[in-house]
Structures are given as structure tokens and as C-alpha cells.
Amino acid sequence: MLTIKTHAVNVKTWFVTRYGYMYNDISESNLWVKLTLSTVGLYVLYAILMGFYWSLEPDTFSVHDMALNDVAQVEADVVIGVTTVSSLIHVVDTMLNKSGGYISNDVSLPGIWMDNIPHWEYGVLIQTRDLTKALREAFSRSQSQSTEDKNLALAESRFNFDNSSWLLPQTEGEYEEGLTFLKKYQRRLYKAQDTEAQFYARADNLRYWLSTVETRLGSLSQRLSASVGQKRLNTDLAGDSVAQQATRSPSELEVKTPWLEVDDVFYETRGSAWALIHFLKAMEVDFSEVLAKKNAKVSLQQIIRELEGTQERVFSPVILNGSGFGLLANHSLVMASYISRANAAIIDLRELLSQG
To answer: Please, which residues have CB within 8 angstroms of residue 31's CB and are 6 or more apart in sequence?
Structure first.
């Protein structure tokens, strides 16, 4: 028995002596595998937690307080146009510097797998582009033959840069430059000696911008309503007996937003509405006399109230797409109802502003 045990020990000693390096290598490789897996696991857990935090949408802010803070003056000294430009500046700044920053161009976790907030950012960006264009083309010009403001022209070009470029140049850098030009225009607007920087609070200018808002909201409303699919009659040429179009289209159309895009449209709408709430509140300040003369202030306030309804907290972890009268909710149809009412009120407001 002793002989057998001694022989076994000698065999083990000989094997370890000859092949011991194999055991050491295997042990070290297992350690590296464990460390790698642990690191990856911790990183994924961190990305998941940060993804939840970055998914928080920013709250609304007071455009009046922001305007006062920008000019560092008392309420009576805020000149016409400063509140509108200030609201635009802080909307863009919030989009770029909210929790997680600007993530539409992220190429790493958790931003690369996030879907809702990038579409929220896109909705904000579209409204930013529209208002910047209106500032350049209408609000800052007295007539069609007047010269456009150089700062607004440069700002508009920056905001129209690709929203998903992550390298050379980076999207955030272009948008930050756009903010710089807007701030320059705002400072010039506030200086009484700089008569070239102007903001004309006229009813026709407000109608010009509202017409763009109207078409944007109309498109969003249609896309939201198409979440369950609809058959619609083709009304493209209605109202003109001799109207023509480039290519023929069927008399009845079936419109349906793809299932994977339902939440994209929903969050794009929330972003657009969030930005519009601030812009409309700013217009209420800068166009107060115009609205008072037309007795239209309450109409504008009703539009704001409808849009504020779109910002209610979503308690469901996913955007549900139930049928209109089914067991499950349809968040898109609820959102469409707010947007449609706001859009109808904008149409009425534009009609009211056009009256003498």
C-alpha cells in the first residue's frame, strides 16, 4: 500500500515538473477571462443605469426669468425680441447639456442603444431650425427687400448641420457655434445704439412663423394617427377642378406608421411640443400688444395649454399601440388628440391675426 502511494506521488511530481507551466498558463488565462467578463458585466450594468438616467426628459423653464437673467436687468428694460431669442438659446442649450448631453450622434454605450431621446432631440431641433429661419427671414427684417441679419444667417446654417455627425466636425460643435451667433444677435438687439439689429413684432411676422408650425403639427398629427393604420380618400387635388400632379396616385390610400417607428414619432412629437411651449410663451411676451389688439392672447394661451398636455408623464415602460377602442392604450392616438387640437387653434389664431 505504501509502495503504491509513493509511486503515485513520484508520478505527480514528475508530471508537474515537466508540464507545470501548462497548469500555470491555464490558471492565469482563467483569471484574465474572469477579469474581462467582470469588467464587461460592470460596464453593461453601468450603461443600463446611465441609460435610465439619460432617458429623463428635461423640465420646462420660465422664458421670462431666462430673458431677465440674460440681460441682467429689471423687467421694464427687456426690449422687444429678447425674450423670443432667449427662449431659443436656452432650448438649444438644454438640448445639448441635459442629462447625458446630446446623444443623437453617440457611438458608444449607453447612447448608441438609446432610441427615444434622440428622436426627442430631433423634434426640438426641427422647431429650432424653423424659428431660426423665421428670425432670419421675417422677424429681423422690415420688408422683403431689406438685408438679412448676418448673425442669424450664420446661426441658421449651423443648426441645419447633420444631427448625427460624431467626428470632424462634431454636431455639438456646430450647434454651439449657432448658439454663439444667436447670443451675438441678442446682445446687438439689446444695445440701443445698434440700429441694424431689429426684431419687428408685427402680426404678419407672427402669422408667417405660425404657418410653419401649423404644417409641422399637421404632419405629426397624421403620423401619430396612422399608428393603427387608416384608409383615407385621396384629397390631394380637392378644391381645384383643373389641378394636376406629377404622377398618378390611387383614389384611396392606406396609411400606417411601421410598428417599430411608433415610439420614434411619439418622442419626436414630445420634443417638438416641448420646444414650442417655450417659443409660444416667449411670443406671448414679445407680441403682447399685437395679441391684445386682436384680443387673441387667450387663443395663444389655449394652444400652450394643449401642448402642455403632451408633456404628461408616461407611466408605461413602452409606447403601447393598441387599437382605438381596444383593451390596451394607444399612446400615439392620445398624443395626436392634443396635437390636433393645438393645430386647429393655431389655424384659428392665424385667421384672427389676419383680420384688421
So the answer is: none
Asked whether residue 187 is assigned to any structural domain, the reply reads yes
Task: Name the strand (E) or helix (H) holding 231.
Answer: strand 230-233
Asked if residue 9 belongs to a domain, the reply is: no
Helix (H) / strand (E) containing 252: strand 252-255
Instruction: Indicate if 332 and 309 belong to the same structural domain.
Output: yes
Residue range(s) defining the domain that contains residue 122: 55-234+251-354
CA distance 214 to 330: 24
One-character DSSP codes across 304-343: HHHHHGGGS---SSS--B--TTSSS-BHHHHHHHHHHHHH
Query: Does 108 lie in the same domain as 40?
Result: no
Q: Please give the tally of structural domains in the chain.
A: 2
The answer to whether residues 31 and 150 belong to one domain is: no
Q: Are 91 and 67 in contact (CB under 8 A)?
A: no
pLDDT value, residue 18: 52
Average pLDDT, the chain: 87
Mean pLDDT of 64-86: 81
Indicate the angle between helix axes 203-225 and 262-286, nearest 10 degrees: 160
Closest by alpha carbon to 85, among 149, 170, 174? Answer: 149
Residue 245 lies in a domain: no
* pTM (2 d.p.): 0.86
Chain-centre distance for alpha carbon 234: 31
Helix (H) or strand (E) run with residue 196 in it: none
The three cell numbers of residue 80 are 422687444
- Collapsing DSSP to helix, strand or coil, 256 comes out as coil
Q: What is the pLDDT of residues 125-136, one digit of tens each?
A: 999 999 999 999
Tens-digit pLDDT profile for residues 200-210: 999 999 999 99
Instruction: Read off the pLDDT band of 52 (50, 70, 90).
Output: confident
Do 126 and 104 touch, CB atoms closer than 8 A?
no
> What amino acid occupies position 284?
E
Residue type at position 309: G
Name which residue leads in pLDDT, 16 or 77: 77
